[in-house]
Hints:
Layout: H1 3-14, H2 18-37, E1 42-44, E2 48-55, E3 58-61, E4 68-71, E5 74-81, H3 83-90
Helix pairs in contact: 1-2
Amino acid sequence: MNKQELVKHLATSTGISNSQVESVLNALITTVLDTVRAGGELAITDLGKFGAAQRAAKVGRNPKTGESIQIAAKRAPKFSPAKALKDAAAA
């Protein structure tokens, strides 16, 4: 399911117009991005937690040449699924 299909599904199931649903969905996406960018964590019950994890600097290897390279430390996005989502995937 892509974003437009999600908007149509939510509009049908709630009786709200597509444009209103899309506005709310865009606001949710913006909120998640802003929270993660600020280093916070956003938890949605039955869905999961959105956040960021700090990755330490490390030494990697170029597979083509075998040369060692330094990989810089960085923050990476992280999603931890809730139990309800895990159970839904297993069913």
